[in-house]
């Protein structure tokens, strides 16, 4: 890799598989969760956070998460001792092969911080923001090397929820988005690489549609928080752990699948069930839904999908029941004098 390339930032400094050191800038709920994930995946982690109690909070978070991560299986050389907390941002990024930013969700903070990181990190080192919804285009405006900045949006906790949504901004180089997706995959994450910027990305847009509806119902006295959470955990949420909303509704159509589901329940989209603007269910949208759902079904018949769904629901229900029994037994032990 020529020096010129490195200086111009037109190429990554290191191959994703050769990363050894990850810098975590911002070590709160998410930054700390990222640190735990990268430590368990066998990386050295160098963290910086301006809060006076940040190191204590970070080490507490990692220590609390570590037993679960050991149960899941640690990577070779994984160790809590591979965590270093430093006193300055420059120290944290100076030797980093990758940087994960997890500062507060304020655009002015992100713009200033990403500019500072981009000025201090070695050329060609990719920098990802954990932002929940800002576009990299609006966050990279002050960075001198915007080409290496991407969004790498996790789900809480990053050491257990596998998804990370990756998308670049208008000034992000294609290699940086590709590099970030390859690195997160190497680091054990499930990666969705988005082709276009979309506020809130994918997972948050879906869950925040439900969140807005929940706030409406609670605000209007139509449902309680308890009813809403029960409705989701005992209903749709149970299925979404393994079949997303589209494949789930493919089965709502019975043998007719998504096509029948749309024909049968399509008109219901117009019912005032939700305050959200319902899309026009055009023939094009119908055909696209059917086509893409069939792709996800990947040739599995409705019967086979029903069997897979039921097997997984039973597994999740049994796992939840097992945890409930264990916690009930622990509670009884604690009550026993
Ligand atoms: N909490 C969540 O469920 C999720 C949060 N995120 C995103 O992760 C980012 C961080 O959110 P949380 O960890 O929840 O917030 P948090 O408030 O728990 O942690 C933020 C940390 O950033 C530190 N900080 C403040 N100013 C800073 C600066 N200028 N430079 C570096 N660090 C700074 C704070 O001391 C704090 O420790 C946000 O962009 C958020 O949208 C993404 C997915 C889920
Ligand atoms: C509440 N939140 C928008 C910060 C949540 C996320 O961004 C993802 C998640 O972990 O649900």
Automatic annotation (TrEMBL):
GO BP, one annotated term: fatty acid metabolic process
Limits of the 3-hydroxyacyl-CoA dehydrogenase C-terminal domain: 200-270
Span of domain 3-hydroxyacyl-CoA dehydrogenase NAD binding: 21-194
Protein localization: Cytoplasm
UniProt pathway annotation: Lipid metabolism; butanoate metabolism; Amine and polyamine metabolism; carnitine metabolism
InterPro entries associated with the record: 3-OHacyl-CoA_DH_NAD-bd, 3HC_DH_C, 6-PGluconate_DH-like_C_sf, 6PGD_dom2, L-carnitine_dehydrogenase, NAD(P)-bd_dom_sf
Binding residues for NAD(+): 26-31
GO terms for MF: carnitine 3-dehydrogenase activity; NAD+ binding
Catalytic activity: carnitine + NAD(+) = 3-dehydrocarnitine + NADH + H(+)
Superkingdom of origin organism: Bacteria
Family: Belongs to the 3-hydroxyacyl-CoA dehydrogenase family. L-carnitine dehydrogenase subfamily.
Protein name: L-carnitine dehydrogenase
